[in-house]
Amino acid sequence: MTWHTEDIPDLTGKRAVITGVTGGLGLHTAIGLAQHGASLVVTARDAGRAQQAVDRIATEAPGAEVDVVSLDLADLADVSRAAKEVAQGYDRIDILVNNAGIMVPPKLTKTADGFELQMGTNHLGHFAWTAGLWPLLVASESRVVTVSSLAHSAVGSIDLDALTPAGSGRSYKRWQTYGESKLANLMFALELDRRAKAAGLGVVSVPAHPGYASTNLTKTGPTVHGLSLPGIGMHQITKIIGQPASHGAWPLLMAATDPSLTGGEYVGPAGFRGLRGRPRLVGMTRVARDEELADQLWAASESATGVRFDV
Predict the structure, then answer these.
(1) Is 178 noted as a catalytic residue in this protein?
(2) Burial category of 306 from C-beta neighbours within 10 Å (exposed 0-12, middle 13-18, buried 19 and up)
């Protein structure tokens, strides 16, 4: 049975928290949830771009309740501050969408805490963010959606040394590192679901990927050190052949709202090679299902962030 946005149930009275809404998947996920009645708490690093997103949401979903929280996932101190702000400012979170990310900076770049930028932002930032919100997520029996990527299938493991102060000893390969960060997203989502089920909690964790979608991700990462012809070229090609960001958001919306999903499923496009199309349950690599590696990743993430995430 094909899933459509019309299948999203009435979300009136529900609250969704979404990271990275200044464009692309996050913006369209926010719009889709708001159009079905959800109140939103959205995060962004840039206040000006955040206001533009709020204005767009107001146009697409008149009357929507939207609050903005400043969040820089590449700074663990800021992650802790923002998580406390949300946890203390709201009585519940029904849906958490871990969406924000960075993609393939052309040279090695570090977070404020000294980790490689992609692993530090995409995985460690969201790990600490979810941990900071965890008591509220448990009390709310939340649905947690973590955004992975087809790129997870391009790597065979995760270099856990990248999660240590010394960092990885290998040379920087931007696509390999991006793939490992998205594999970490997927493994974190699956391990979170396993641990929540084992603890008898009502939290449901469902990872999703957007296929090949045209978003600003192909621009912000490659041009993080300034404009470059390869970065501009990749972004323009993606705009031509990628599916619209609004379609890329469909798997996220299904993962966030489909009541038949009980946790641990993976949602992505149904079209050719998972690149585009309506969302459905999709497969993942064997390493993504490696529970021993997932446990090691969890422990390494706790050590890296200094956050005890006891589910």
Answers:
(1) yes
(2) exposed
Helices and strands: H and E segment counts in the chain: 11, 10
> How many other C-beta atoms lie within 10 A of the C-beta of residue 10?
9
CATH number of 11-303: 3.40.50.720
Task: Encode pLDDT of 147-190 as tens digits.
Answer: 999 999 999 999 999 999 888 999 999 999 999 999 999 999 99
Whole-structure pTM value: 0.91
Rounded Cα distance, 32 and 38, in Å: 9
Question: Of 90, 178, 212, 266, which one is the catalytic site residue?
Answer: 178
Residue 266 to residues 21, 187, 252, 305, Cα–Cα distance (Å): 22, 11, 10, 26
211 sits in the region (left: phi over 0; alpha: psi -120 to 50; else beta) called: left
Domain map (residue ranges) of the chain: 11-303
**Nearest CA among 43, 306, 8 for reference residue 163:** 306
What CA–CA distance (Å, rounded) separates 96 from 268? 18
